[in-house]
Amino acid sequence: MAAGVLFRSSDGRVLLVEPSYKPNWEIPGGAVEADESPWAAAARELLEELGTERPLGRLLVVDHVHPYDGRPDAMVFVFDGGVVTDADVAAFTFSDGEILSAGLYTLAQTRTLGKPMLAARLEAAVEAVEEGIVALCEHGKRVA
User: Fold this and answer.
1) Closest by alpha carbon to 6, among 119, 144, 137?
2) Following DSSP, what letter does each residue of the chain receive, concatenated?
3) I need a surface site. Which of 18, 66, 123, 124 has the fewest CB within 10 A?
4) Phi then psi for 10, rounded to 5 degrees?
5) Greatest CA separation for the chain
C-alpha cells in the first residue's frame, strides 16, 4: 500500500519530485508502514521528503495496481495537497538525500518525467479535483 499527495499550481501544473534512487520522477509520497493509515503515511512523507507539514485535503484517487515486474498487487491512495506557488516549491527542503529536487510540470511533461502509470494516475487525480469525485483506477487508468 502506498500514499501520495497531489499539489498543483493555479495554472494547472502538478508537483513532481526527483528521487535520488531511481530515474523516474514521482509525486511526494511512499509506502504505508505497518499500523499506519494511508493519510498518516502521506503526511509523514511530506515531512520527510519536502520538509513541510501541510494539512491534507480529501482523497482523490484509489488505484489498484496489478502485479508487475515481480511486484505484488498494491493499493495507491492520492490525497489533495491543494494549490502551491513557485515560491512554495522553492521553500521545500530535501534534507535526507532521498529527493534531489522538485518542480511544477504540465500533465504532458509528467508523461516524459514519470512512468506512464503515474501520468495516468495524475490525470485521474486532476479530473477528481475538477469533478469533486474520488477517481477509481486500475494500474493508473481511471475506471470510475
Assistant:
1) 119
2) -EEEEEEE-TTS-EEEEEESSSSS-B-SEEEPPTT--HHHHHHHHHHHHHS-------EEEEEEEPPBTTBPPEEEEEEEEEE--HHHHHH----SSSEEEEEEE-HHHHHHHS-HHHHHHHHHHHHHHHHTS-EEEETTEE--
3) 66
4) -65, -20
5) 40
* All cell numbers assigned to 9: 499550481
Amino acid letter, residue 47: L
* Identity of the residue numbered 42: A
Lookup result for grid cell 528521487 = 19
What the chain holds in terms of domains, given with CATH numbers, is 2-142 (3.90.79.10)
Please indicate, yes or no, whether the overall pTM of this predicted structure exceeds 0.90: yes
* Residue 121 grid cell: 494516475
Amino acid at 102: A
C-alpha grid cell, residue 101: 529536487
